[in-house]
Amino acid sequence: MLKKYSVSFILVFAFMTIGCGEYGKVDQGRVIACDKANKTITIILDKSADRKKPDYTLLPAVEYKLPDDPAEMGPEPKSGRLMKLDLEKKEAVVYSLEQKDILAIAFTVVEQKNAPASDPLVFDKAANKPRPFPVIDLQKKTITTYLGKLKTLLTFSVPEQYLALPSDAWAFGDEVRIYYKEKGKSLRLMNVTQTDIFKK
Q1: For 164-176, how does the pLDDT look when each residue is reduced to its tens digit (9 = 90+)?
Q2: pTM
Q3: What is the topology classification, in CATH, of domain 7-79+173-191?
């Protein structure tokens, strides 16, 4: 579910993004790991020059300390190692913890359905919360996930050896934007995935 930031937080973050050369720097990436004990996250950075078309494949992965002040951070990021599902190329882009590399895994579409976030297959009305994804069916050898931006419920199959990967390999980590002055130590963190800047 999308969370709300205060208007002042968003305006300050936007200002920092515009003037980051003078005030600090901003990195954007997808979270692949969260260490609650040490209050750190690890992300794969966006190497695209177009913020509207991120490309989370810049290696190596980078670790950041979370802001010391909880008020400088939005919702706690969720981690996952699925960087992208390319429906045109039929290719899943996954970060391998073992190889510390990006894997491009060909997949076959089993079922593709247009579904708004309120669809019963996506949202559990009785529990009043989104259904958990991915759903891995080892008998059918399929993986089902929801692509929120595309409003698409996708079931696909991959070569059998990849079904042995942990479930987080098929889960999208949250996209985050980090403001920092010292590399590896965030001063502010915006959870882009869980933030709706249009809500008041």
Answers
A1: 999 999 999 999 9
A2: 0.84
A3: OB fold (Dihydrolipoamide Acetyltransferase, E2P) (2.40.50)
